[in-house]
Write a structure and sequence with these properties.
Largest sheet: 6 strands, mixed
CATH architecture of the largest domain: Up-down Bundle
Distance between the termini: 59 Å
Order of helices and strands: EEEEEEEEEEEEEEEHHHHHE
Strand content: 15-25%
Helix content: 25-40%
Number of helices: 5
Number of strands: 16
Number of domains: 3
CATH topology of the largest domain: Ferritin
CATH class of the largest domain: Mainly Alpha
Length: 337
């Protein structure tokens, strides 16, 4: 294996044999510099990756997991990963990392902890709605993406308890669907047919009606308008749009099915039953648009093959899936179970 290392590393003398199992590291020494050889499924055909722990850091290649948006009162933990000039993660610390937060939350310099493994961690809790700017540097130079812009929104939004909590839960999902279809209809993907435009527009109208109905029913108990992030959806791509639409509709069906038994007022349950049947019709027509002549509208993913009933999901499962698109922080801890 040594003959595959470049000429500058041929003076390496082994401190331990090279690990042949996946993800193991063997540390070698070359001219006083410790080097980690990382092997991923290492074999004699040679697929070894070398990561010098003593290599100099490249701030421009280093990264951090900074959220684009966060709710007030929600703690944010950021991890900075130091990388070398080749974009390889460094495995040792010792560099000077600074983090400065300005804007709506003018916290100034934040305390950064060196984990001594190439990672640097700090945290903060935004308290003011608006826009924050986060500058992160390594040895005085900005890392990739810095300065970062963070939108701070009011939050977390509490659904409440009892029937009010359940209705707010449904209202949040209807807001999500209405916002999605409004975006779709606002600028249809290329090649959209007249039939597809009609279907998607009608679904948009239904979701807006559902949203507005629940808002009116809740009155003063209604949660505020939520903010959404659909950047993971390519609205110019037909398949992406239909896949996302099917995901939202099936999620809505499973959500209503999983929350119906939590309602105490029978009138609310009746209305929920009427809404969920419409959501199921949406899911069916969208599945047939995406996969004509298939059983996608009623397969084992949507219908339990043993009971013949629609699948259901409890609120924590539904919100876990919807969290990708919901920017506003949500507190569903008081929902009935």
């Amino acid at each position: 294996m040594l003959d595959r290392l470049d000429a500058g590393l041929r003076e390496l003398d082994f401190l331990a044999r090279v690990a042949r199992a996946s993800s193991r590291r063997t540390f070698l020494k070359w001219s006083g510099v410790t080097v980690a050889v990382v092997t991923a499924g290492c074999s004699d055909n040679g697929s070894d990756v070398t990561t010098p722990t003593g290599a100099p850091v490249s701030p421009g290649n280093s990264t951090a997991n900074v959220p684009a948006s966060v709710g007030t009162g929600v703690p944010v933990e950021v991890t900075v990963q130091a990388k070398d000039a080749n974009g390889v993660d460094l495995l040792t610390g010792g560099d000077t990392v600074t983090a400065t937060l300005t804007g709506a939350d003018n916290l100034g310099a934040l305390r950064v902890a060196d984990r001594a493994n190439g990672k640097y961690v700090f945290d903060f809790t935004p308290a003011t709605e608006g826009t924050d700017t986060l500058d992160i540097t390594i040895n005085g130079a900005p890392i990739s993406g810095s300065p970062f812009t963070i939108t701070v929104v009011a939050g977390p939004v509490n659904f409440g308890t009892g029937d009010v909590g359940v209705l707010n839960y449904a209202y949040a999902l209807e807001q999500l669907e209405a916002a999605f279809y409004t975006t779709v209809v606002g600028a249809f993907y290329a090649g959209v047919t007249a039939d597809e435009q009609q279907v998607l527009t009608e679904i948009r109208d239904h979701e807006v009606i559902h949203r507005d109905f629940l808002k009116t029913a809740l009155g003063a108990d209604a949660i505020p308008d939520l903010q959404f992030d659909f950047t993971s959806v390519d609205f110019t791509n037909r398949s992406h749009v239909l896949d996302a639409a099917i995901q939202f509709e099936n999620l809505g069906v499973s959500a209503y099915n999983g929350a119906g038994f939590l309602l105490e007022n029978p009138d609310f349950l009746t209305t929920a039953g009427k809404i969920v049947s419409v959501e199921a019709r949406h899911a069916a027509v969208l599945a047939l648009l995406q996969n004509p002549n298939s059983d996608a509208f009623a397969n084992d993913f949507t219908v339990d093959p043993e009971t013949g009933l629609d699948q259901y999901a409890i609120p924590s499962q539904v919100l876990g899936q919807a969290d990708t698109f919901i920017v506003t922080a949500i507190d569903a801890s008081q929902l009935p179970t």
